[in-house]
Amino acid sequence: MSNPHSTQTHPPKASDPSLTGPNGANALSGGTSSARKDSGQKYDSSSISTSAYDAASVSQKQNEAASTHLDSAGGVMGSASPACTTFSPTTTVTESNSAGNTLAFASPDPSIMAVHGSVMTNFPMPRDRYRAGKNAEMSGDEWDKIASKLNKGSVSLSRGMTMTKTLPETPIETDMTGPPMDTKEGKTTTDVNGKEEKQSDVNVFTHGGEMEKQKQEQKQIEDINPVYKNDRVIAIDFDDVCSENMATIIKQHNMKYGTDLTIDDLQTYVFWQNRGWGTPAEVARKVQTLNNLLSQTTPIPGFAEGLRALHTLGHPVHIITSRPAKDREGLTRWLNEQGVTIGPGERDVIAQAHFTGAYDDVNSPVAPRGEDDEFEKELNKRLKELWADGVGKGKGGLSKLKILREINASLFIDDHHGNLKPIIRAQAQAEAQAQAQVQAETATPPIQCLLFGEYGWNKSRSGLATPVEMMDYTERSEKGLSLPADPIEFGPGKNLDRVKDWKELVEWVKGWDRAVVDDLCLDT
């Protein structure tokens, strides 16, 4: 069958090998068609199901007159089409009689088109195409009339069949070279002589391979398309949610300082609490040499696809990072290299990026170590206080919470539990306000939190609230002390869940969106 937009002038011949399946079986009929013309058997007009459109402009009598002829005995027999003969306004139907003479018949009326008993959904002749025969030219009005009926998609089957099939609105391309189509047993009909016969019901015009491809494409669409599309704002951290920041720092640390650290050695977010990093002063000096590695940093697997999925779900996505504002250009360039852009456009995945610079004080430049041990001791003491005042009190999380409120975020995702604690506390306060029946406009809207990844530093709660936590790794090891390992609480009522990777993150958000629909349904 030719594509409706092709320039093919004549219909394909039945003998075309590209139109046959295994053992010469016709690809369209699935091997269940009636006897071929060259088999010597005559075609009984009563056994031929002619597909006719309800809106046909000619009578049944005219149609039959155009498709029948006399046999050698003067009786009327049907001129059924050979397999895959396409009836259209350009078709001339021919057949040989018992004497070997070739008989030509008028084309069926333009309102009828069929492919060996199967209704076509496409009009194979371009507009303004001339045709042979007594009706030498099809007018534009006639073409429009036929095409409009085809595009409606509803076809009524006559000639012994009363069922109605609905055809697709959009023309379906048919691969004629594939295996035979699947058929299923159809209705039993009775011919004019009272003989029962089975009609084969062809399910679709596409073969199995095309159907499977369409199913896969549909599943991909369903995997991305939301059950409920909303515009709740989602905010995400950048380092170790989008980029493998810590892994890159450790790699460079090993190269520069000759250590053998792995990412599993980072059991807390406070560097000097971990093996191999030294005192707070030594960490501050190292950070100066390990602080500009973004161009060498690899992305978290699946992050770009995950961001695009959130964007497709309808959520405006913001990045909120503790990096200083001077990193904006480098971060934007890094994202662009991953195919992720920042901006207000429809194709921009990130709406905005926000930089809090929350740890600028603890990362301030420190002079090289001198001979004065007392000065070094005081420096370490001062730096520990800065860490306790900043990281220990959730300064990073509080600075992010401020921006979350400004952008009216509903969900925040971070790899550092310490950054999420202030937001979780804010949620508890919001619930307390609601219980106290504070007016809605004064109550703090809740922000759901997700802890991203399964890193050593977010396996348990950590902080700088106890004397043991204020010791560096060497001091603590010398005393045989271990850091507290209080478990992080997750689940309903805790305003916190964990997702191990971007695949889980996207699935979590989909479920979060579905919950909104469920709540709306319950309210109504």
TrEMBL record:
It comes from Kwoniella dejecticola CBS 10117. This is Uncharacterized protein. It comes from the Eukaryota. InterPro entries: 5_3-deoxyribonucleotidase-like, HAD-like_sf, HAD_sf. Residues 1-80, 169-194 are annotated as: Disordered. Residues 1-10, 42-70 have a biased composition (Polar residues). Residues 182-194 have a biased composition (Basic and acidic residues).
